[in-house]
Amino acid sequence: MYDVRSVGAAEPLARGELFDTAFLEAAERLRLVARRVAPRGRFADQRSKDRGAGLEFQDYRPYVAGDDLRAIDWTVYRRLGRVFLRLFEEHEDLPLYLLTDVSRSAWLERPPRARAALRAALALAAVSLGQHDRVGVFPFGADLSVLQRPTAGKGRLMQLAARMATIEPQGDTDVGRALRRFGALGLREGLAVVISDFFDPRGLDAVTEALRGVRHKLLLVQLVRRTDRHPELLRAGTAGEVRVIDCETGARHDVALGPAVLERYRAAYDRFNQGLADFARSRNAGLLALDCDAEVVPQLATLFENGRREVV
Fold it and tell me: Which residues of 258-268 are buried (b: 16+ CB within 10 A; e: fewer)?
């Protein structure tokens, strides 16, 4: 019987492995790509529910004592003999909340999925910080932690990179618990980017149920590898009895490998992907499959194709 385990130990990477000079330069280029996005498509342009002294006309309402006299539309008064205020739609920044999966399993492969997750988070942070948005970072595994509360400032990118380079593996995967903890923070409505492979011991239904409870706009970045659908063990032609050991829980399962098992596995994986895509459509959320073995920034750049942001 073969004893099958994931290769490598769950260990953090050196800072240079996460954010080397070439990657930081690529992140800066992504910021430039995002600047070409039409004004109403950028992260920082969220329509506020408030009405005030904005730029875009929205409506009229009758004047009441105490209102700002500068907002009175005197043209309407001359025509109708009644005093109305012009109301404008205000715009405000859209906070960016980065929820990165750094559970134990995310660090096992080489290069680990956590590397792609953290790189994607920093590249998106570069875009938002460059647009004067607030950015918060919330790594999660068995629970969610607060690495950085939402803060703004173009000069904070390197400081954020240094802090993200200190992140270590954080236990088993529990997306539901992490998202409940995130919701309890009571943060202002913004864009929540969840970066994960979304493999959770409780199954996809538990993951999507937890995502439904997130009151923010959603962008899902799914960490994928070709070997997810085509495991190397099966491609190598291994047959017979194997013992598969869960990389997080240590649970052991004896499996008899063969063509029929491979087909059932692929069908299950395809159902998983379809379920995640169906949820994203139902929630009007963005969904990007991020290949962990390819360069991160060019893949993220597809979110800004055709001069607009394809996230929410």
Answer: eeeeeeebeee
Return the amino acid letter for 229.
R
Determine the structural domain holding residue 17 and report its residue range: 2-43+93-307
Q: Is residue 312 part of a domain?
A: no
Last residue of a domain, one of 92, 119, 151: 92
pLDDT in tens, 204-232: 999 999 999 999 999 999 999 999 998 87
Domain check: are 287 and 300 in the same one? yes
Residue 105 in 3-state DSSP? helix
Q: Please enumerate in sequence order all residues whose Cβ is within 8 A of that of 44, keeping only pairs 6 or more positions apart, or say none.
A: 93, 94, 128, 131, 132, 133
| Residues 40/55, Cβ–Cβ less than 8 Å | no
User: Token pair of 185, please?
Assistant: 């923070």
Name the one residue in this structure whose structure tokens are 């070409």.
Answer: 36
pTM reported for the whole predicted model: 0.77
